[in-house]
Each structure stands twice: as structure tokens, then as C-alpha cells.
Write a structure and sequence with these properties.
five-stranded parallel beta sheet; 61% helix; alpha/beta; globular
């Protein structure tokens, strides 16, 4: 089991330069978990793709359904106290700290490409490239 952030989920479902890495991460550990926040963040990514006409509305709906299916039963709520403690101890956003909080709660790694998270939480966050190489 690993916590993945919205970027990793996006790489998996939206074709791009890191898509192969995300696919390899899922093959390496197929139990991806995330805080409930991932849904809102991913919808925002899809909204950007729709507005830039990179996806049709119908494609975005289909991708959201696929992502929701992958993450079903693997979404967690984190406490505000824990998130705010992490915010106070770092320069990361509360959004980012939700993923860190979940990784801490479950005592698993957070796989990410976010440089700030990787710098601020080196004991829990692991770069996507390093995760698939290990």
C-alpha cells in the first residue's frame, strides 16, 4: 500500500511524459490510497483539460469514473488537527499536508513528484522515479 498524490493519479489517467512511470508504480504496488481531497483536485485537473480542449466533457466524465473506480474503498478522511500540525511544521499547503497526514496515519510512503513535499517530508515522501526503481 502507498499513498499517491493527485499528480500521480493524473499521470496514470492522462497521457503524458510521466504516464509510463505511473503505470509502473501501479504494477509495483496496486494498492493506491489517498485522502478524499484527491477527488476535488482531480476534477480540477479534468476541468483544465476540458477548458484547454484537451479532453471532451464525455472523456473527462469517463476518466473520472475510471479513477473513482480505482480508488474506491481506498479513500480516507484525515483530521484537521493533524493537517494543521503539518502545515505549522512546514511550508506546504494544507492540501499537500492531507496526503502527508494520511501516509503518516497508515505508516506507508507517499509517492509524489512534488519537490516541496519531498524536501519538507523526506522521511515519508518518496519520488515517483525512486519508487519504481527500488
Amino acid at each position: 500500500m502507498i499513498v499517491v498524490d493527485t499528480a500521480v493519479i493524473s499521470y496514470f489517467f492522462l497521457a503524458g511524459e510521466r504516464s509510463t512511470q505511473a503505470e509502473r508504480a501501479l504494477l509495483k504496488d496496486p494498492v493506491w490510497v489517498a485522502p478524499l481531497l484527491w477527488r476535488s483536485e482531480f476534477r480540477n485537473v479534468l476541468a483544465l483539460y476540458i477548458r484547454k480542449q484537451l479532453l471532451s466533457f464525455e472523456e473527462a466524465v469517463r476518466i473520472m469514473e475510471q479513477a473513482t473506480s480505482l480508488m474506491q474503498g481506498r479513500e480516507y478522511q484525515v483530521t484537521s488537527l493533524q493537517v494543521l500540525n503539518l502545515v505549522a511544521a512546514s511550508i506546504c499547503s494544507a492540501y499537500d499536508c492531507e496526503f502527508v497526514a494520511l501516509a503518516q496515519d497508515l505508516d506507508v510512503s507517499l509517492v509524489t513528484t512534488d519537490k516541496q513535499i519531498l524536501r519538507q517530508f523526506p522521511t515519508i515522501a518518496i519520488p515517483l522515479e525512486e519508487f519504481i526503481a527500488s
